[in-house]
């Protein structure tokens, strides 16, 4: 799902604060699921060998069907991990929701005004061709590293704009309260 698939103005999420607006949502590139693709193909390939060797035994032709079913289970698990891991960027914070297992999840929040630096890296030829990279968000307490981000250059620019606006709004808020 690309960033443009969700209309931010219509998106509400659990834990949203009054006056908080979703600027954009992004997730990791489909390349992050490459282990799931391999786990889909490996059982199928391994179980296809016995019917090729013993072609007279017709019962062995059910092995690849079982291998495909097992591979689909592995693939489904990795798909769920990829699909339900999202990054919400609001006018106040970044919220990372990471799927852990089928039923668990981790949520990390980072206020935009606490971000010191944002950088991105595209890892060579495959990253350039397939359009994925790594974004590093630096704060006082540590770094938030987001690997395999789809279109890291565009996401980087949107994050920079969000941080600049948050710092600007915080500066306006401090002047009013003094």
List the helices and strands and how they pair.
Layout: E1 22-27, H1 34-47, H2 49-53, H3 63-83, E2 86-90, E3 93-100, E4 104-111, E5 115-121, H4 124-130, E6 132-139, E7 143-150, H5 152-177
List keywords for this structure.
178 residues; alpha+beta; PH-domain like; 2 domains; four-stranded antiparallel sheet; three-stranded antiparallel sheet; 5 helices; 7 strands; 41% helix; 28% strand
Q: Would you identify the CATH architecture of the largest domain?
A: Roll
Number of domains: 2
Outline: elongated
Average pLDDT score:
90
List unreliable stretches of 5+ residues. none
Could you state the CATH homologous superfamily of the largest domain?
Pleckstrin-homology domain (PH domain)/Phosphotyrosine-binding domain (PTB)
Per DSSP, the total helix count is 5
Evaluate the radius of gyration: 22 Å
Spatial strand sequence of the major β-sheet: 1-2-3-4
- The H-and-E topology, N to C, reads as EHHHEEEEHEEH
> What fraction strand?
25-35%
Derived from helix and strand composition plus strand pairing, the structural class reads: alpha+beta
CATH class of the largest domain: Mainly Beta
Report the count of strand segments. Answer: 7
Largest sheet: 4 strands, antiparallel
């Amino acid at each position: 799902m690309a960033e443009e698939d969700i209309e931010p103005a219509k998106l509400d999420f659990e834990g949203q604060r009054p006056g908080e607006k979703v600027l954009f949502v992004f997730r990791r590139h489909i390349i992050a699921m490459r282990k799931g693709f391999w786990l889909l193909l490996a059982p199928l390939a391994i179980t296809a060998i016995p019917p090729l060797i013993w072609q007279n035994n017709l019962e062995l032709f059910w092995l690849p069907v079982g291998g495909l079913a097992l591979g689909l289970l592995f693939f489904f698990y990795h798909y769920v991990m990829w699909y339900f891991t999202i990054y919400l960027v609001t006018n106040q914070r970044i919220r990372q929701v990471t799927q852990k297992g089928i039923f668990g999840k981790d949520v990390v929040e980072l206020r935009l005004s606490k971000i010191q630096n944002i950088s991105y890296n595209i890892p060579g030829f495959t990253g350039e061709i397939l359009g994925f990279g790594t974004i590093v968000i630096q704060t006082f307490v540590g770094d938030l590293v987001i690997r395999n981000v789809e279109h890291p250059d565009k996401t980087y620019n949107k994050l920079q704009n969000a941080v600049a606006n948050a710092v600007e709004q915080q500066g306006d808020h401090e002047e009013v309260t003094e």
